[in-house]
Specification:
The chain is α+β, with helices and mostly antiparallel strands and 140 residues long. The protein contains four helices and six strands. It has one domain. Strand 3 and strand 4 form a beta hairpin.
């Protein structure tokens, strides 16, 4: 993962965002795969509804699942990508939950004065609270 001060290695198993407008393009992220479609998958971009996203996370089969652009998460596994809440993005595929949080935190850090940053912080706090309460209900 890259922040404004240099390269930081992610401790998560997920694949954090590669390059978005908030990440310096001249500093490559460490241990991260590119989310842009490759030449052997020309159909990939078409599945995204023709829109460019800052981050796209794939499902286990390599099809786009979640995407992020301009402070908004999208479910891109449907025929028509649709905006979803941060809570839904966290629950969509728990394997990506750490990367979802990383993406949101990086975006909020790069856009501290935008109202959407405050909205995302609130969504994140409510989602974490809900997940923590759900975890208390499950015997472990």
């Amino acid at each position: 993962m890259v922040d404004g001060f240099g390269v930081v290695t992610s401790v998560l198993n997920e694949q954090p965002p590669v390059n978005g407008p908030w990440l310096p393009a001249q500093q490559p992220a460490v241990g991260v795969r590119a989310t842009t479609p490759s030449a052997e998958r020309p159909w990939y971009h078409g599945l995204l509804g023709g829109r460019d996203y800052e981050v796209v996370y794939d499902d286990a089969e390599g099809y786009p699942l979640l995407a992020f652009a301009d402070g908004q998460w999208f479910d891109v596994a449907t025929l028509t990508p649709r905006p979803i809440s941060l809570r839904h993005a966290l629950r969509r595929d728990p394997a990506w939950s750490g990367a979802v949080v990383q993406t949101v935190c990086l975006w909020m850090r790069a856009h501290p004065g935008e109202e959407r940053s405050f909205e995302l912080a609130t969504e994140l706090a409510l989602a974490v609270g809900e997940l923590a309460r759900d975890a208390d209900l499950v015997p472990g």
